Amino acid sequence: MAGNTSPHADLPVRVITVDWDHPDAETLRGEMSAEVGPRYAHLEAELGARGLAPHSIDRESVHQTFVAYVADELVGHAALRWNADDLELKRMFVRRAYRGTGAATALLHAAESTAREAGLARMILQTGHLQPDAVRFYERSGYHRIPLFAPYHVLPQSNCFARSLR
Hints:
Elements: E1 13-18, H1 23-36, H2 41-49, E2 62-70, E3 73-83, E4 86-94, H3 103-117, E5 122-127, H4 132-140, E6 144-145, E7 159-164
Parallel strand pairs: 4-5
Antiparallel strand pairs: 1-2, 2-3, 3-4, 5-7, 6-7
């Protein structure tokens, strides 16, 4: 990324596959919740009162979990879950100090490769309306907006995307 001032920008990113409950994956999901959760606390409370939990993940639906490292430092997380016949990118997160280093791109490419290996023609994802940096990243990465898909159809301000893998 042009203008990146991260001291980690020139170091290689290594992405590995881990179990959903791997300690590094859990650490990063906790950090993501702490950073992003407060932005949506009002919405989550409203949805909870209506008995809805569109962001919950059934462990059995998780297809693959990825963590990224720079040197020995844990830097990012992404997962794929089955959503009907599609693989959906979930819990994409890179620690602030490593943003702009290529970690997000490396995670996204690992997820896309997994979807291709599964024989899928596309990969889908959802990101919230209060995450403009994520929206820009996905658009720059070749994703285009698609109609809201379940379970996010209850979130009219949501952003749903897909990218052809062919």
